[in-house]
Amino acid sequence: MAHKKPHLTILGSAHTAYPTSPDKARLEAIPFNNQGNHTTVTLSTDEFTSLCPVTGQPDFGEIVIEYVPEKLLVESKSLKLYLFSFRNLGIFQEEIVNRILNDLKKALKPRSIKVTGRFKARGGIVIAPVAQWNR
């Protein structure tokens, strides 16, 4: 079955623009023909950075995204730039996973989604928040 060619503005662009915040980032989607199968997509990066909203110090961690698509998949370059946009944002780690979940849920309308953050220890404490949603 032929797929409709998606309208993508980021992938294949001659110029890569790095968004300065998640509000300015654009998550793009491509069609997914699941043919009735239950498919889980897992995406992860161990190069995630943001800032502590109180101290301004950098937070480093891994973000793992697991979702069951309905009709759309996230385009990976747009996701990379979206995640990069947190780099200079002061935000608590628990808020990060919920923000990512909500933004992807809005862009993809998946059957279910789970976002896990595994952040490096700060002050001797590791924080590993998980946000999930099921239709």
TrEMBL record:
One of its GO terms (molecular function) is preQ1 synthase activity. Gene3D superfamilies: 3.30.1130.10. Pathway: tRNA modification; tRNA-queuosine biosynthesis. Substrate binds at V74, E75, S76, Q93, E94. This is NADPH-dependent 7-cyano-7-deazaguanine reductase. It is found in: Cytoplasm. The gene is queF. It catalyses: 7-aminomethyl-7-carbaguanine + 2 NADP(+) = 7-cyano-7-carbaguanine + 2 NADPH + 3 H(+).
